[in-house]
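Lesson 9: reading folded outputs for more than one chain in a single document. The general rule is that every protein is listed as its sequence immediately followed by its structure tokens, and records are never interleaved. Here is the first one.
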Amino acid sequence: MRVMHGLEGLRQITTGAIVSVGNFDGMHLGHLALLRAAGALRREQPVAVVTFEPHPLTTLRPEAAPPRLTPPAMKQQLIEQQHVDELVMLAPTPEMLNLEAEAFLAILRDEVRISHIVEGTSFSFGKNRAGTIERLREWTIGSPLQLHIIEALTTPLL
């Protein structure tokens, strides 16, 4: 798995890649569903994951940051075990945290020209989490980028 960092790494994702953006801490069933869906779309193009490391709340509101489920090396290993080809680690720097959702998407859609983006129904991204799944749907209409929305999973507690 090729590991890249920061906005420069984001711009190095292979053209045509299938991408999922998210925290991916702990690799729970929802994460697995996203990556399985991405893998099912794979033909010749790679699957790429874009994640923050550490969680953005560690910078924005440290008191509200969720506890870490897996250390960074384990997170990377768990992602690689899901047959991900490329991993972009984004540090929660002011530059990243102030990037508007549409500008972030423009990097993936217009500069890198990814082919598919696979996200869950509660996905949000960009400054102030303004890029909702509904906005993402709007922004991909009429573009070659195909959006795949994976429904949330439920599991009974024993």
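And here is the second record, again sequence then tokens.
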Amino acid sequence: MPNARLSSATIILTVLLWTTSSMTGHQVPAPPANATPPAPDASAAPQGQPTFRGGVNFVRVDAIVTDKQGNPIVDLRQGDFEVLEDGKPQTIETFRLVKVDAAAPVETQPRIRTRADEERAAANEDARIFVFFLDDYHVRLGNSMAARRPLAEFVQNSLAPNDLVAVMYPLSPLDSVALTRDHQSIIRVLERFEGRKFNYEPKNATEQRYALYPAETVERIRRQVSMSALEGLAIKLGALREGRKAVIVVSEGFTGVLPPQLRDPIASQPGLGNPARRNPAIGENSNVEDRAEFIGQVDIQSELQEVFNAANRSNTAFYTVDPRGLSTG
């Protein structure tokens, strides 16, 4: 796992950008006195009333600023920032500095038990929001076990007591993803993380329905499930508050095409009916395989774009963590 950390005194600079489009009006002219009145049109706007067309865009930009050593910079002012849209400078109307103190005591508030409690807690902008997305479909078992301790230490050492945290798996219903200040409960969940990459044994009724599909089909379904879950999570977080939310995606990444050695005709019966299992040279330096990989990557990029769009609209940042650490290939 990369040695990434967040300072216990992270400074979040919140810039609110206010832009408005021009508003125009159109006054319908009065007809001449001797003109014959036209037949009434039910779909037309009432005569003599102005028609206004315009719009207002409220854009919020969050910035976390650190120096070369990774320490937060706390003395910046509004004049130190410049916001551009399509290369054109925009006026910054409001500016706010939010300092998160990891040593601060937990708020004396009731526990989060209902959706209303969650919304009230999320409305406090001094509390950060983190969701761990444990992509078990795309993490090997051994790598998930190695990632447990660093993830737990991050929660224990890098989060402030008031920070809100949740855990989600690809098949977790959105309603079950609840933010909490009980960090110990999150640590217990992280310590049980088990990856299932290339393990197609069905664990529930949903997976049982496609257990007899080819391995390539199951991989595609798993990838789409993970991406749909990320998109839904971003939308859910966007409804909680406008400020920046962080999703920590623990995954080894998505692949467009399985190697021939793993293209079993029946995913839940590995090796059965797949002669390539005994011949590792099959598929090497093949133009057909290269084309298939290219097409697969195009599909992944298209699916990821939908996730990115949802994240941008909801002001949700994805921080990807590869439990393999630094790797090649």
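What the second record shows: Helices lie at 115-122, 141-158, 183-190, 205-208, 215-240, 287-313.
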